[in-house]
């Protein structure tokens, strides 16, 4: 019995030692300091921040530095100038770090891992001095935007990781669709938008809806409509995304319907124009799927043509306030307004 207890006790001790080693190795040790790995003499692990007394040490030439659990809200990367042989730097698991106090210095660093920080914004020249940078991990931060310049100007960059951020999915982010830059994005399919309108929706899909909408947004005699992606929702079976869009061509002095409108237009606003002919609703297939049309304050006299049209069976709102309609028959459709 005693022997068994002693045996169990020694297993317990071994287990503790094993856990302790494991924890140290992954930069989670409780002590707040830097230490060289004993098995890998070129790797410096720092918990809680970089320790300045390593700066002038002539015996320490780490090629890898891992810094974690930094409590402060900003981080100064200048110290890497003291380690010209450094090729991999990780500053990780420090959600309080929201920014860098200055750009990274000129350095031949190849891998920069900045995962699980609280980065909110990166200045466009933050990484400009890292001319040899090949891999950049910015996953699990709070970034809303990433200036295209950051990716474009790192000529050696091959891999960038950006998932789990708060991407605002603003038109500025459309560089993710650029084939040259996009192919460096290793986790593009896992990137999701963080703003409420598109929250949780895949960045690539949202950006391509926005791009298509902008390309197809009508311009008529140098006058531009305003097209916006208001919302994006999953289909009932969650197998594809359905955009909800508004195309606003109000008060542009138009005397006819735009010849073409973006695919997937949900709401079309044509208020305050000089339109009199509504036949495009019957003849132009682009208009078949629009569910809300506002034609208030135009010069429409007659809507008899619409009788029996396909479109009339599908629409949600057809608003004709302040026109000059002389109705022959009273419509019994609730949403036909004039
Ligand atoms: C490193 O050395 C320089 C000059 O030798 C000195 O000015 C600096 O204070 C030293 N830094 C540290 C952290 O000891
Ligand atoms: C973040 O900062 C707060 C105080 O401002 C501190 O209590 C907390 O431990 C810090 N978190 C980390 C992970 O360092
Ligand atoms: C960055 O570090 C984290 C945590 O150690 C790791 O999971 C991730 O794979 C690293 N990223 C890259 C690109 O190596
Ligand atoms: C277009 O509409 C959006 C949303 O309604 C608005 O934020 C934006 O300022 C408008 N742009 C123009 C040029 O009117
Ligand atoms: C219109 O929406 C469908 C899915 O609802 C999508 O497959 C298609 O690409 C969209 N068209 C454009 C031009 O965005
Ligand atoms: C549509 O555009 C007009 C003129 O620019 C503007 O007054 C109106 O508020 C816009 N409507 C919507 C719903 O964005």
From TrEMBL:
PROSITE patterns xrefs: LRR
SMART domains: LRR_TYP
Keyword GTP-binding: no
Pfam families, A to Z: LRR_8
One cellular component (GO) term of this entry: plasma membrane
InterPro entries: Leu-rich_rpt, Leu-rich_rpt_typical-subtyp, LRR_dom_sf, LRR_TM_domain-containing
UniProt protein name: Uncharacterized protein
Gene source species: Nezara viridula (Southern green stink bug)
């Amino acid at each position: 019995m005693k022997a068994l207890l002693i045996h169990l006790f020694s297993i317990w001790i071994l287990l503790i030692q094993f856990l302790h080693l494991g924890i140290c190795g992954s930069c989670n040790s409780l002590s707040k300091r830097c230490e060289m790995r004993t098995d890998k003499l070129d790797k410096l692990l720092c918990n809680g921040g970089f320790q300045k007394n390593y700066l002038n040490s002539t015996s320490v030439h780490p090629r890898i530095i891992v810094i974690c659990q930094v409590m402060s809200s900003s981080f100064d990367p200048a110290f890497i100038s003291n380690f010209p042989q450094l090729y991999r730097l990780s500053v990780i698991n420090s959600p309080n770090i929201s920014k860098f106090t200055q750009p990274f210095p000129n350095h031949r660093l190849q891998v920069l891992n900045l995962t699980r920080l609280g980065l909110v914004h990166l200045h466009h020249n933050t990484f400009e001095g890292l001319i040899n940078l090949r891999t950049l991990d910015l996953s699990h931060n709070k970034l809303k935007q990433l200036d295209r310049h950051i990716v474009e100007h790192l000529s050696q960059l091959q891999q960038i990781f950006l998932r789990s951020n708060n991407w605002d999915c603003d038109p500025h982010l459309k560089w993710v669709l650029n084939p040259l830059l996009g192919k460096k994005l290793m986790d593009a399919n896992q990137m999701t938008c963080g703003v409420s309108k598109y929250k949780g929706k895949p960045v690539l899909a949202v950006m391509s809806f926005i791009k298509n909408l902008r390309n197809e947004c009508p311009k008529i005699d140098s006058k531009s409509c305003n097209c916006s992606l208001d919302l994006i929702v999953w289909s009932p079976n969650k197998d594809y995304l359905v955009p909800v869009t508004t195309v606003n061509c109000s008060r542009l002095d138009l005397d006819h319907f735009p010849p073409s409108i973006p695919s997937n237009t949900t709401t079309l606003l044509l208020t305050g124009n000089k339109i009199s002919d509504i036949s495009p609703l019957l003849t132009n297939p682009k208009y078949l799927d629009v569910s809300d049309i506002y034609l208030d304050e135009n010069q429409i006299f007659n809507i008899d043509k619409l009788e029996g049209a396909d479109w009339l069976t599908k629409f949600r709102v057809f608003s004709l306030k302040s026109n000059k309609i002389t109705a022959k028959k009273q419509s019994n459709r609730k949403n036909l307004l004039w």
